[in-house]
Write a structure and sequence with these properties.
The protein is α+β, with helices and mostly antiparallel strands. It contains five helices and eight strands; from the N terminus they run αββαββααβαβββ. β7 and β8 (about 170-174) form a beta hairpin. α1 packs across α4 and α3 (about 80-90) crosses α4 (about 105-130). The two termini are about 30 Å apart.
């Protein structure tokens, strides 16, 4: 199924996300002590085949469950290579991404994305003039042998795919 949004609505949503995640980039830049940039998000109707391909790759999958106007789940998939670099920069410990991501590494990664959410979601809500309340947040590790989501069931009512590049100068580019 596809959500019934036209190109103008997708472009408007992309701009709202650009504002929200731009605020997060500024804060993350100061946290890492380097210039950070989140490229303008590209939003398109979801495609189960493309989502299945994405979810076959090793990644961290952070789920934000919302209430109110945007009730449902939002998923952030972060490539394994970016996760390893982020965890090392946050904890000072070199980490090999795996299904058994150590507790300290998992906590640091989840805390980073909670920080991104704490900054970007209020900006998204204000820009869109709506209410966003996170009811729950989880972090799953998606590996070659463990895939926590089947797009055809997880997204049975359709979904939007938002993709953006996140860079911290001299630290990482994902």
């Amino acid at each position: 199924a596809q959500l019934p949004l036209n190109q103008e609505q997708l472009d408007a949503l992309s701009e709202v996300f650009n504002i929200g995640f731009g605020a997060a980039a500024n804060t993350l830049g100061s946290r890492f002590g380097a210039a950070a940039k989140i490229a303008k998000p590209r939003i398109a109707p979801g495609d189960n085949a493309k989502a299945a391909e994405l979810l076959q790759k090793e990644s961290a999958v952070i789920t934000f469950s919302f209430n109110e106007e945007f009730a449902g789940n939002w998923y952030m998939c972060v490539e394994a290579s970016a996760c390893s670099v982020l965890v090392e920069k946050l904890t000072g410990v070199k980490t090999v991404f795996s299904a058994e991501l150590p507790g300290e590494s998992r906590d640091a990664l989840k805390a980073l994305f909670l920080d991104i959410a704490a900054i970007s979601f209020p900006a998204l809500a204000t820009t869109a003039n709506c209410t966003l309340t996170v009811a729950q947040t989880t972090l799953d590790v998606n590996t070659a042998s463990r895939h926590p989501f089947d797009p055809s069931t997880a997204f049975s009512q359709g979904f939007l795919q938002t993709a953006f590049t996140f860079k911290v100068e001299g630290v990482f580019d994902s």
